[in-house]
Amino acid sequence: MHERTIKEIDLKGTYLPSESRYDDADKLYNRCGRSGVKLPKVSLGFWHNFGGVDAYERSRAITHYAFDHGITHFDLANNYGPPYGSAEETMGRLMDDDFRPYRDELFISTKAGYDMWPGPYGNWGSRKYLMASLEQSLRRMHLDYVDLFYSHRFDPETPLEETLQALVDIVRQGKALYVGISRWPLEALQKADEYLRAHDVPLLIFQDRLNLLDREPINKGTLDYCREHGIGFISFSPLAQGLLTDRYLNGIPSDSRMARGQFLTQDKLTPELLDYLQKLNQTATERGESLAGMALAWILQQPGVTSVLVGASSTAQLEKNMECVQAKPIQQLSM
Ligand SMILES: NC(=O)c1ccc[n+]([C@@H]2O[C@H](COP(=O)([O-])OP(=O)(O)OC[C@H]3O[C@@H](n4cnc5c(N)ncnc54)[C@H](OP(=O)(O)O)[C@@H]3O)[C@@H](O)[C@H]2O)c1
């Protein structure tokens, strides 16, 4: 258990968000599919940089910068950390320290679907797992409900109806306002869309990887399906975990995700890829933009995309990423 220092206790409740946070609201938000909800074009993900291993004050500063600039959507999952669950605990501390008065201005999501606790009920897509996991998530985040609850991945062994009915019942119980699915194959997405619509809990959003290096949702027709059926689309790892920034153009910095080597490994950075990234960077420079800003803008300009779900290890990175909201139209960027 974290021992709070006097300084931290003193800081509790002193955060006053910027009064200008919604000044550019007409530029900052997209409607999510055909729902009543608008999401920020840039959303903040808690996969990295918000765990128990990370410095709380740095995580806290990133969320302040985000909220001060109109980023109202924070995305979590049960197993974000490390250790598992600790990003949600950070969210709980942030609620207590800073964000409780602003709960109704925040759109907080969490997920279950990957390995979380030992035994047969802590993984995949059973009703047993989803229901228990959300209970745990709410306790860790000090919340009564989440705005959005996701099935984090498709489970080929659990009947699709069982997973989906659990999502429906979670909404009926008031523990989530909306539901989403992430990384489901297109055919299963179609079935989910039909099932949830028939049960009066329409699918709010689909979460999948889409960036300049991975265009599968476009090539496979997933993005088109979402757009045509009024489902929002949010792109995770929109910067390919940092590859689509200036982070690796001149070597591998010791404090980077690639240097840590668990989720982004050095073998990804082939000479061909580096060459492509240099060319993209050149194009961005000619446009008067950063590579990160241009890469995010490219995603946001794909018809049907609601939001890019970025990660950031500093407020400076997030500041740069926000530039995409102002970017000029992009014609064609080849692979
Ligand atoms: N549904 C799913 O299965 C799934 C899977 C993955 C992610 N997600 C969601 O998507 C969110 C984002 O994923 P991600 O962290 O991979 O996103 P990302 O935005 O592609 O990568 C974020 C990382 O790139 C680097 N970076 C970001 N902005 C930068 C900038 N302006 N200049 C230089 N470097 C920059 C930082 O790494 P350094 O540490 O090197 O500074 C940062 O942590 C997650 O937090 C999570 O919410 C969902």
Automatic annotation (TrEMBL):
Coiled coil: none annotated. Residues 42-327 form the NADP-dependent oxidoreductase domain. It comes from the Bacteria. Keywords: NADP, Oxidoreductase. GO terms for biological process: methylglyoxal catabolic process. GO terms for molecular function: oxidoreductase activity. InterPro entries: K_chnl_volt-dep_bsu_KCNAB-rel (IPR005399), NAD(P)_OxRdtase_dom_sf (IPR036812), NADP_OxRdtase_dom (IPR023210). Belongs to the shaker potassium channel beta subunit family. This is Oxidoreductase, aldo/keto reductase family protein. It comes from Hallella bergensis DSM 17361. The gene is yghZ.
